[in-house]
Design brief:
Chains A, B, C, D, E, F: GO terms for molecular function: peroxiredoxin activity. The structure is a homohexamer. By secondary structure, the first copy, chain A, is mainly α. In chain A, 78% of the residues lie in helices and 0% in strands. Chain A folds into 2 domains: 54 residues, no CATH class; 77 residues, Up-down Bundle (AhpD-like), CATH 1.20.1290.10. The first copy, chain A, has 8 helices and no strands. The mean pLDDT of chain A is 91.
Chain lengths: 131, 131, 131, 131, 131, 131
């Protein structure tokens, strides 16, 4: 039983490092529509995956960036959130761009270009915020 | 002009690290069907992408593993080749498995399970060879 | 011969239940670009599929909702139209949300979240209309 | 804490109805490769999704059949497992075939035909077993 | 009424040019599982699409080859059938290979390579038959 | 060495026929983010693919239109650019529409409808410009 509590708790520990307000924001946006949504997502994605040993968080995030890129432009909102998380995990913008552009080989040029566009938008938003 | 020669040459340098017989094997299998195939692939994938600075080769390979996983079971042959390359780039089997399994979050369980199956097959082949 | 007339006619009967103005709206929007578009769509989608026996219309519509969800955010406009049709076929909003959210297992979280967003938008539009 | 225990337990209750040996079979096949795999899958897929209220299990399974069909032939193994589960949930073979064939409208003919092929294979296997 | 009869008949005329035994073979393989399958497919795919004016049959077939290639290895059986149809429509093997390989740009290298593999298999089968 | 210079140069020759300002526009938009982007894209897509012999440029472009259509609405920006290129390669609007609509058979109705929407938007933009 303890271990299942720790799946959710371990997920929350990862979220605390990457994006502390995430669970609250998800709950506010989706829990009325899908009861249990935010907790379920944190438990599964962060507790059952990102919290696992054997691969560091920064590399996990770069893998996610690449995967969202080949999944296509439909995942642009998730790609932007995850680029933020990847920066929080210690990656540079240059590393992120490489993880996107390389996907032209596997997912084709349109997917890679849509990924670059999402990154550019996010970088512009970050620069506007800090300017 | 030199720089374009170096796109192919830089690609060949990466291939020399990851899988020296690759270009020859691709040429033998595909160049009669598609004249220029092997050279074109090495130039584009390895010279124009893997040879780029700003992201280390091992992380690039783990990103590729994740992307091929979410692209689905149709890429199993390419996934197995790239798992070999990822081992050659210095990743452990555990790191590779993590880069695959995490994809259940983004590409769904069937894609992740098909990816694990491809990895298991490749590991079994490697173990059979070295046994 | 009679049975082919009935493919189109059977399709029109289904459309009459789900969304009477559909064929006219499609004809107005697409028939100049693609002569025969609306009739062809009604015949194929509704006459050759939804009008078939052995599965009730409400379940057919919920299956469509799930499929459009895993096909990704690119199908948001079609998803919204089909959520309307699914309500017209007798499903509740709660059933529709479940048919979407369950797809996180098969198509990944981004596809499921994009599907929830489309449903929320449609529900908001319906509520605004009836308010 | 209790509620997270129940996500796994609720998942196990669903699995008990659909396919009792599933968790053990998954553990045997995958837990050495991915520690915690079987438990994690049962908790997420069955506890966090199929066990939810508001949509009956048979309809949930038919939705899954449709989704796996449009995801393409790469999901044939998962489609066959889920067709078994759908029969266990009370659907007829005819209902399952309809949930597959209708997908020609949304995922295209190749995906629908590959889905029909998977169903035919599974039906043949079941008939051979019971013959 | 006549026009709907002619959708099916127009489809049969195209099939007569590309692959005369197709409808019978489809009926034998699928009509027991999906009543009306073969007729429905001929009417929709060949009557409502390939029989349309404004684009010649050979170009239509080459477009189909490219589309099946980017849809991924899951469509290999359909790709092989359509390569045969494309040869029947007057294309050369070289043209077909170009329509596949170019897809590396849009669908990525794995999809293009899987497409080349399907073409090579089909060419080998044809050569074995005529040898 | 000369032949690799000519991959880029051959690509530039094709671009000169289809869309002369393309390389400059891509460089301005992406080269700061991805050093070498524009040159790399011209070399790979146009030099290593469109410049190849054995398939005429107009047919290549129509194949691309079909492929981008089945890849889904996420590729709408690329589809619109390529529709322009296809017109420049000598195709009529009617031919382009046929290459899109036929894809309903292979990629499903939502993908085909999204493709028609992209074409209609581009045609409207062109008509507004010339009006």
């Amino acid at each position: 039983m303890a271990e299942h509590k720790s799946a959710l708790d371990a997920g929350r520990d990862v979220v605390a490092r990457l994006n502390p307000p995430l669970e609250g924001a998800l709950a506010e946006k989706y829990d009325a529509l899908v009861p249990g949504f935010a907790e379920s997502l944190v438990e599964w994605a962060y507790g059952r995956h990102y919290a696992r040993p054997n691969l560091d968080l920064k590399t996990r995030q770069l893998c996610t960036i690449s995967a969202l890129t080949v999944l296509g432009g439909q995942t642009a909102p998730q790609l932007k959130v995850n680029i933020k998380h990847t920066l929080a995990a210690g990656a540079t913008r240059e590393e992120i761009i490489e993880a996107i552009w390389q996907m032209a080989v596997y997912g084709g040029l349109p997917a890679a270009i849509n990924g670059l566009n999402a990154a550019q938008e996010l970088f512009d938003e970050l620069d506007a915020t800090t300017a």
